[in-house]
Specification:
Layout (H helix, E strand, L loop, with lengths): L2 E5 L5 E5 L4 H10 L6 E5 L5 H13 L2 E3 L9 E4 L7 E2 L1 H4 L9 H8 L1 E5 L12 H9 L3 E5 L2 E5 L7 E3 L5 H11 L5 E5 L5 H12 L3 E3 L5 E5 L7 E4 L4 H13 L3 E5 L7 H9 L3 E6 L2 E5 L9 E2 L11 H8 L4 E6 L8 H8 L3 E5 L2 E6 L7 E3 L3 H13 L3 E5 L2 H4 L5 H6 L4 E5 L15
Parallel strand pairs: 2-15, 3-14, 6-7, 10-11, 18-19, 22-23
Antiparallel strand pairs: 1-23, 1-24, 3-5, 4-5, 7-9, 8-9, 11-13, 12-13, 15-17, 16-17, 19-21, 20-21
Helix pairs in contact: 1-2, 1-7, 4-6, 5-6, 6-7, 8-10, 8-12, 10-12, 11-12
Bound molecules: ligand EPZ.
Ligand EPZ binds next to helix 1, helix 5, helix 6 and helix 12.
């Protein structure tokens, strides 16, 4: 099992490149199910979750050629021959976003069998809103042996109002509605850039969508979709993570190939902490952490509010700020897995329900820590970058799920970080692959 060894103390200086968004790539890969023609996706990140989705699509009978190392990371997907519209438990249990195939499979094949996701480190994360929306579009939903089975001759347009804002729920039902008969109106939709990204691909495939990126999306169903080529958005959470890395290490970092418009909430919060952050170009943000950090509160909200996926990273920064910061997690019920590990490194954090109170500044000392979920793991990397001594981070396959070559990128701007154990990312599969 891979580990990271990180020696703290170096300010990060230089230019660090952001990869394509995992959370855009996953729905866009699923969208390829909607056509029997080839879909070409550029800027796909080389992360474990993309490999998991490749396995899922291939298991259904699709042909997927991941384009790592090729120009533009060009990935091609052909779902001409889907033979088995099933997302098996073995795959779904390692990645909940597998539920994104539900809508496209019902829309294209008339049937989908998707394992119910089961538990997750950060919360229950049910997909009841996905299935409720499909029922409104006319699908018959059954539950058997831990699987959801959805069937429909042809889905019919409907007026859907989401009880809660759900990112993949919005994407899943958008992908179902584009081939439904008639018009669909969806209200209380997620406005995340990843929704806009998959809507752009669907439009390029011939779908008729209006309002993606707002809370009301209107779809006019079409008979058929054709192939298309689409470039995936930069990963706004990776960009935000690197901005925090520049701030926490007191560095001077240029975060390149990002979309500054997608990280405004994080940039605003860093400025409130006394960090100098500025847009330095159309896809470039500069962060300088050359002064003392001031405490500031965050409360996670749906986009364009402060993102839940940046909550753990901010908490690491707050341990280095003078004063008391409160961190309120409103999206998931169990997203403080990083707290105990940060406390073991010397942080002063108390959790009460959905709010963590961080008292800083506390010097952090290097320790052996355990990575849990993806973003909690990123938080531990950030803490280790400023801790006194050499930290060992175990189970870094959690980080490999959503950060492409993170140790190489950080080493490139001065971090003392190296990977121990099996080498992932395209070379040898870690023994965790079976999980
Ligand atoms: C997406 O997850 C992201 N994953 C998550 O990123 C992100 O944290 C989350 O959105 C919130 O921004 C992908 O896009 C692949 P939700 P998703 O449905 O869609 C509840 C990462 O680190 N809910 O918006 O699964 C749910 O329990 C990952 O990259 C229901 O109750 O999240 C949660 O409390 C982690 N019923 C809230 O809604 C449903 O049917 C928001 O969840 C669906 C969701």
């Amino acid at each position: 099992m891979d580990k990271f060894v990180i020696r703290g103390g170096n300010p990060l200086v230089g230019t660090i490149r952001v990869s394509g968004s995992k959370n855009s790539a996953l729905p866009c890969m699923a969208a390829a199910i909607l056509t029997d023609e080839e879909v070409v996706l550029e800027n796909i990140p080389q992360v474990r979750d993309i490999e998991t989705e490749r396995k899922l699509l291939v298991a259904m009978g699709a042909e997927v050629e991941l384009g790592y190392g090729r120009a533009q990371h060009r990935t091609t997907i052909s779902c001409r021959t889907i033979s088995d519209p099933t997302a098996p438990y073995e795959i779904v249990k390692t990645m909940r976003a597998s539920s994104l195939v539900l809508g496209p499979l019902v829309a294209r094949m008339g049937v989908a069998r998707v394992s119910m996701p089961g538990g997750c480190a950060i919360g229950a994360r049910p997909i009841d809103l996905h299935t409720k929306g499909l029922e409104m579009l006319g699908a018959k939903i059954g539950y058997e042996h831990g699987y959801i089975e959805a069937r429909a001759e042809r889905l019919k347009g409907a007026h859907i109002v989401f009880d809660k804002i759900t990112v993949t729920g919005t994407e899943d039902l958008l992908m179902a509605a584009v081939l439904a008969e008639g018009e669909t109106v969806m209200e209380n939709c997620a406005r995340e850039p990843e929704v806009t990204d998959v809507a752009a691909l669907l439009t390029a495939m011939g779908a008729q969508i209006h309002g993606a990126g707002t809370s009301t999306i209107e779809v006019k169903g079409v008979e058929k979709l054709h192939g298309a080529k689409h470039r995936i958005n930069p990963d706004r959470i990776e960009a935000g993570t690197f901005l925090v890395a520049g701030a926490i290490t007191g560095g001077d970092l240029l975060v390149a190939h990002c979309n500054p418009a997608h990280v405004t909430a994080v940039m605003g919060k860093l400025e409130e902490c006394g960090v100098r952050v500025e847009v330095a170009g159309k896809d470039l943000v500069r962060v300088r952490g050359d002064g003392a950090l001031k405490a500031a509160d965050i409360s996670t909200e749906e986009y364009p509010g402060y993102p839940t996926d940046m909550q753990a990273q901010y908490m690491a920064l707050a341990t280095q700020a003078d004063g008391t910061s409160t961190v309120t997690e409103n999206i998931f019920e169990n997203r403080f897995m990083h707290v105990q590990e940060l406390v073991r490194m010397g942080a002063n954090i108390r959790v009460d329900g959905r709010t963590a109170t961080v008292r800083g500044k506390t010097p952090l000392s290097a320790a052996a820590v355990m990575c849990s979920d993806l973003r909690a793991s990123a938080s531990l990397v950030l803490a280790a970058l400023v801790a006194d001594g050499e930290s060992i981070l175990d189970r870094v396959y959690n980080i490999d799920r959503g950060y492409e070559h993170i140790e190489e990128k950080l080493r490139g701007v001065g971090a003392q970080i190296r990977r121990m154990g099996n080498v992932f990312q395209g070379k040898r599969e870690p023994e965790m692959a079976a999980l």
